[in-house]
Amino acid sequence: MNDVERASAILTIDLDAVAENYRRLSARSGAAECAAMVKANAYGVGIDHVAPAIARAGCHKFFTASLDEAVRLRTLAPEIDIAVLNGVMAGEEETFDRHRLVPVLNDLGQIERWARRGLNDKPRAAIIHLDTGMCRLGLPPDEVDRLADEPARLDGLDLRLVMSHLACAEDPAHAMNEAQRKLFEVQRARLPAAPASLANSAGIFFGAEYHLDMVRPGIALYGSNPLQDAPNPMVEVVRLQSKITQLRDVDSPQTVGYGAAHRVAGPGRIATVPVGYADGYLRSLSGRAFAAIGDTRVPLVGRVSMDLITLDVSTLPPGRAEIGTTVDLIGGPCPIDEVAGWAGSIANEFLTGLGSRYARRYVGEGT
Ligand SMILES: *Cc1c(COP(=O)(O)O)cnc(C)c1O
Questions:
Q1: For ligand 1, what atom is nearest to the CA of residue 163?
Q2: Span 170-204, pLDDT tens digits
Q3: Best CA proximity match to 336, nearest among 313, 354, 361, 358
Q4: Distance (Å) of CA 236 to CA 128, 270, 327
Q5: Most buried residue among 252, 276, 313, 359 by CB atoms closer than 10 A?
Q6: Which pLDDT band holds residue 216 (cuts at 50, 70, 90)?
Q7: Which of 18, 62, 85, 200 to mutate to test the pocket of ligand 1 (most atoms within 8 A of CB)?
Q8: Which residue of the set 22, 39, 43, 61 is catalytic?
Q9: Average pLDDT across the chain, whole number
Q10: Residue 266: φ, ψ to 5°
Q11: Confidence at 311, pLDDT banded by 50, 70, 90
């Protein structure tokens, strides 16, 4: 038996789908360059496989959150541009140089640190992040004022990009989107001319005014729907499948699982599937989720345990649910966005939380 045959569940990741999503997002972005967000191990999907696939699809610019993610990415792809969202901390400068990484500079201190290095040697490639409403990373308005008043602070930098990040992109009607876009236009006009970037996955669909020179999709590359109330324009990337390992015919009232949280009233069938919260199948799905057998959704009943879930398969005709029958937990009839929603979460959290116990199977070439 190989590891896929031994595993209690299989996570299949379609690299052709990731590449196709990159091309679709790029096509939606007009003349803007399409970068790729591969932070957090490419949203949990697996940076070692995903980054080369996206690069083959034509992507040259990648963003990670942390320095160690960027160093890892450099070993996978020698030719691409890699930017680090967390910026450059004291002591990290040499590592940035050695691996040809570009820091996203988030405050005047980081700008000074990186510019000093450029002044002493040759100008250093840099991205500047302006905070237009997240109160998280990026220069706050008073630091933008100081930078505009003292442009010499940028001497020693080769300014490649000025960027900001939308706080409410998942809600296209939110007034914050336009407010941030306008503030970003005002602020960047006060700095030396440089290419600009504002849109994440959802922002791409707000239209040309949001595209500027570069877009930075993440989650849509991995198959999540960037639109609020419309069919998903992306291709499904992740599929989680397991199989039935136990079947229990119930003929009298009884309870299922921890806390006796589910009560079976009459005759029926309960199927046990060996996936649990230890795998990232969140406990908050207890009593609220569905799985699929073929095209038919069946309800998850009772609590999610560490290693197991229980499904009510009473409605399926005999023969459709047997020991060994395949069960779809994510994908197909159970789209990732819907599963995450049942858990009170979002696809981003669900994907990055998918555990290490699954056998991961990568399919497609990413071309
Ligand atoms: C994560 C991130 C993105 C991508 O956002 P998605 O909603 O996943 O497309 C873009 N820009 C920044 C600064 C980010 O941190």
A1: 13
A2: 999 999 999 999 999 999 999 999 999 999 999 99
A3: 354
A4: 33, 29, 17
A5: 313
A6: very high
A7: 200
A8: 39
A9: 96
A10: -135, -165
A11: very high
Yes or no: say if 364 and 17 are a contact pair by the CB < 8 Å rule.
yes
> For residue 58, is it left (φ>0), alpha (ψ between -120 and 50) or beta?
left
Confidence of residue 367 (pLDDT cuts 50, 70, 90): low
39 is catalytic: yes
27 in Cβ contact with 51 (< 8 Å): no
* Neighbouring-strand partners of residue 101: 82
How confident is the model at residue 37, as a pLDDT?
A: 98
If you average pLDDT over residues 206-218, what whole number do you get?
98
Place of tokens 């649990």: 276
Residue of 176, 174, 149, 147 whose CA lies nearest to 162: 147
Name the pTM for this structure.
0.96
Instruction: Please tell me the distance between residue 201's alpha carbon and the centre of ligand 1 in angstroms.
Output: 7
**Alpha carbon of residue 253 to chain centroid:** 43
User: How far is it, in rounded angstroms, from Cα 351 to Cα 364?
Assistant: 19
Dist CA 37 CA 51 (whole Å)? 9
What residues have CB less than 8 Å from 147, skipping those under 6 apart? 108, 111, 139, 153, 154, 191
Please name the amino acid found at residue 254.
Q
Measured from CB, residues less than 6 Å from any atom of ligand 1 are 37, 39, 85, 165, 200-201, 216-220
22 catalytic? Reply is no
Report the range of poorest mean pLDDT among 59-73, 200-214, 219-233, 255-269: 255-269
Atom of ligand 1 nearest to the CA of 219: 8
Neighbours of 78 (CB within 10 A): 8
> Given this model, what pLDDT does residue 265 score?
85
The identity of residue 215, as a single letter, is V
* Residue 279 tokens, joined: 């795998």
Catalytic residue among 43, 122, 243, 258: 258
Q: For residue 98, which amino acid is it? A: R
* Residue range 294-306, pLDDT digits in tens: 999 999 999 999 9
Smallest CA separation from ligand 1 atom 6, residue: 218
* Residues belonging to the chain: 367
Cα–Cα dist 285/344, whole Å? 8
